[in-house]
Amino acid sequence: MPNQYAELGSLFLEMKELVMYLQLYMTLSGINIILMLARILKLMDFQPRLGRAWQILLALSQSSHATRAYSVLHDVIKFLTYIAGHVGGCHSTQQTRV
What we know:
- The chain is mostly helical.
- The chain has two domains: 1-46; 49-98, no CATH class.
- It has three helices and no strands.
- α2 packs across α3 (66-89).
């Protein structure tokens, strides 16, 4: 019996390491997505309609109202996250019971 508990303990430690790797991967993926969005917004600067959002954010960040630019960017990211969750949640019609 004691040998089985040792194996169970090592299994839990291995799972904890895997979870830590997964958390690191998700963090780096999130940072990569944010940087990619910033790069796309910068590339859209030459297009009059699409570049307007970037120009507004750039003007707000250079002015004394930098917190307002951060607030606008935060609201946009929050809205996109909400939409992604809403679209992803529409596939299940039944509630799961725990």
